[in-house]
């Protein structure tokens, strides 16, 4: 992926959280994503504050987003990855993932992780594969609707 190709077309990727359009991110995640519908806006704001975030911009307008939850030493979890529909089909998702895995603060990690229902082809281009020992992994999963009920 050649950064110059996208830069010449007016795109850029930045980790500057001040540039993020939180309203656009919230709208997409809450209304259009399959993984974060129902997320409370305050919870998303806290998640962004505590993550390494990547914004994709077209002429200073948000075109895409991804968060990386990491200790910057051993582990990174990529999540909330999206490119807005009007910007799809030009390779921005590949550029975004390449930028993330090549980010200087994320080099030398022992493990990268992510979850996807429909983008295996994208992530496999960057070395991601199915978990080799799924029996070793455990989780507590609470959809946002259940969390809301518990908080009442």
TrEMBL record:
Molecular functions per Gene Ontology: acyltransferase activity, transferring groups other than amino-acyl groups
Keyword Transferase: yes
Alphabetized CDD domains for the sequence: NAT_SF (cd04301)
Keywords: Transferase
Transmembrane segments: none
Pfam families: Acetyltransf_1
Keyword hit for Transferase: yes
Residue ranges of every copy of the N-acetyltransferase domain listed in the record: 11-151
Record InterPro entries: Acetyltransferase_Butenolide, Acyl_CoA_acyltransferase, GNAT_dom
PANTHER family per UniProt: FAMILY N-ACETYLTRANSFERASE, PUTATIVE (AFU_ORTHOLOGUE AFUA_6G03350)-RELATED (PTHR43233:SF1)
Protein name: N-acetylglutamate synthase-like GNAT family acetyltransferase
Organism whose genome encodes this protein: Mucilaginibacter frigoritolerans
Organism phylogeny: Bacteria, Pseudomonadati, Bacteroidota, Sphingobacteriia, Sphingobacteriales
